[in-house]
Amino acid sequence: xxxxxxxxxxxxxxxxxxxxxxxxxxxxxxxxxxxxxxxxxxxxxxxxxxxxxxxxxxxxxxxxxxxxxxxxxxxxxxxxxxxxxxxxxxxxxxxxxxxxxxxxxxxxxxxxxxxxxxxxxxxxxxxxxxxxxxxxxxxxxxxxxxxxxxxxxxxxxxxxxxxxxxxxxxxxxxxxxxxxxxxxxxxxxxxxxxxxxxxxxxxxxxxxxxxxxxxxxxxxxxxxxxxxxxxxxxxxxxxxxxxxxxxxxxxxxxxxxxxxxxxxxxxxxxxxxxxxxxxxx
Length: 281
Fold this sequence. Notes:
By secondary structure, the chain is an all-alpha fold. The protein has ten helices and two strands. The chain has a two-stranded antiparallel ribbon with strand order 1-2. A hairpin with a 5-residue loop joins strand 1 (252-254) and strand 2 (260-262). Helix 5 (94-112) runs antiparallel to helix 6, helix 6 (118-151) packs antiparallel against helix 9 (224-247) and helix 7 (182-197) runs parallel beside helix 9. The longest helix has 34 residues, at 118-151. It is globular and about 70 Å long. The model is unreliable at 271-281 (pLDDT under 50).
């Protein structure tokens, strides 16, 4: 008896990898479908406005009253004993954070392409959350780079003086890229994004972000107002990306009052819940 010939062959690994990658990208640009996205958008606009207004006021107060005093209290730039701080501050470097998140995304895609059924669903749920983390940081950093170029604020002691009002807009060099702090942007965007997915990590993540912020001050890389502005840009950027994902039923749900809440995350003991709810209801 001859073998059946109507059984379709399973696509090979390259085709599976292409399908997984295509699905991951397509879900980010699909039309928003959540019925409560309008409520969430209004809440995002309201919170972003209040946060931006309060942050801008604090930045101005620090610039006028505190920046010059603070940088004069810090150890001299290049002090040898600060080497542990120089190592620690790199944990907030955008290139490193984005590289790690990007590599994690690639690894998840490579593994998911070789899995099927529930295992693939679980990995795709993890991949969606990694996409959220990556884009939260990437968008915030992109906005910060534009602001740095437009504002052109000199770093502490650029020009030889502790002058917090040393501005050369459109200058475009690292010496005049102080406002906002890129490390603060990265750290606070990551802290907000991780906390949005896994609220129990909130204290740990914002402690990490504050430590990164303080290292920038000690190393005389930024003024206090720079790091506050960076924290503001990072959080607002991550809030916007969270809304984008929630509106497309990705990793977040939207309550009736517009509050965005995380769906169960991929932690041990919760994988089945992730598989059942990779998208918002």
